[in-house]
Amino acid sequence: MGTNLITHVGCLAALTRRFRIPTSPAEALLWSELKGRRLRGYRFERRRQVDRYVVDFYCSELHLAVDIVGAATPWQGPCIDEERTIRLRLSGVAFLPFAEEEILYNLDGVVSRIRQAIRYLPWK
User: Fold this and answer.
1) How far apart are CA 22 and CA 4, in angstroms?
2) Fewer Cβ close by (within 10 Å): the C or N end of the chain?
3) Dihedral (Cα; 67, 59, 96, 94), 10-degree rounding
4) Beta strands in the chain (DSSP E)
5) CATH code at 87?
6) Is residue 14 one of the residues assigned to a domain?
7) Structural domain boundaries, residue 77
8) How far is CA 52 from CA 11, 46, 68, 80, 91, in A?
9) What pLDDT does residue 3 have?
């Protein structure tokens, strides 16, 4: 795994800092479960730039991105999601997408799936 996986591009890095405040109830709920090393002791960051894309949550130690599909994000459109997912996976990032509704109505299930993914990551 290369150390240059995360590339900070000036304007994109500034944009990610600007939009770190949770923008949806689903994002706030999931962040409450991920912040402060609450999930198996791993540190997640919000609105992190990975490669040339921004993901909702990222754990650099695990190279694990967790994203909310359908979340209102001012810097990307639906066509970017598929390209971004493919590029991140090719870069060695495990990518877990979740629908907003799934987080709102089944938060325990979402957290359980993230824990399970962490347990089975090959490079952990």
Assistant:
1) 27
2) N
3) 130
4) 45-50, 53-59, 64-69, 94-99
5) 3.40.960.10
6) no
7) 24-119
8) 11, 16, 18, 11, 11
9) 43
- The string of pLDDT tens digits covering residues 68-93 is 987 555 445 555 578 878 888 888 89
Look at residue 124 in the predicted model and tell me its pLDDT.
Answer: 59
Amino acid at 95: F
b/e per residue, 99-110, with b = 16+ CB within 10 A? ebebbeeebeeb
Single-letter residue type at 19: F
Q: Which 8-state DSSP code applies to residue 9? A: -
Half-sphere exposure of 109 (CA within 13 A, CB side): 9
Residue 114 lies in a domain: yes
pLDDT confidence of residue 35 = 94
Distance CA 101, CA 80 (A): 21
Q: Helix, strand, coil: what percent of the chain each, to 5? A: 45, 20, 35
Low-confidence ranges of the chain (pLDDT < 50): 1-9, 74-75
pLDDT for res 20? 52
Total H helices, total E strands in the chain? 5, 4
Residue 43 forms part of a structural domain: yes
5: in domain: no
